Amino acid sequence: MFLKSNRTLQLCLLACGLVTAVGCTSEVKTHPVIGKVLLPSGTPAQRGLVEFRTTTAEGEVVNAHGKIEPDGSFRLSTFAEHDGALAGEHQAIVLNPATDDGGPAHRAVYPERYSAYESSDLKFEIQPGPNEIVVQLKAK
Q1: Looking at residue 129, which CATH number applies to its domain?
Q2: Signal peptide location in the record (predicted)?
Q3: Which domain holds residue 115?
Q4: Which of 72, 82, 119, 131 could form a disulfide bond with 33, CB atoms 3.0-4.6 angstroms apart?
């Protein structure tokens, strides 16, 4: 009986492995995205997070994000560090930086409307191949 249940377990593990392998063959392609976030004054943002989102043909929402560096630059990551974003139209938000202890910032650096997809008017088209984006924030 042990041999029979052990054989069943082996077959189940093999079947699970095949299903996983088949699912991994349809790899989603990302494209490099670098950019810069500019404040309404035209000066570079110095911290925070930029996030892009798109909806795939299958209806799945996929996000890409990047840390805003002190010079305003960012590099998007979706599945792996700095792998970029999916091709297509993306909405974007810019999140205010956290404090040093990881909590929310005490004073918002960026206009509040940029912190939610519902109120942000930032939209970008990511093309196959390298992309360079300028995220220009507006005062009103």
Answers
A1: 2.60.40
A2: 1-21
A3: 33-136
A4: 131
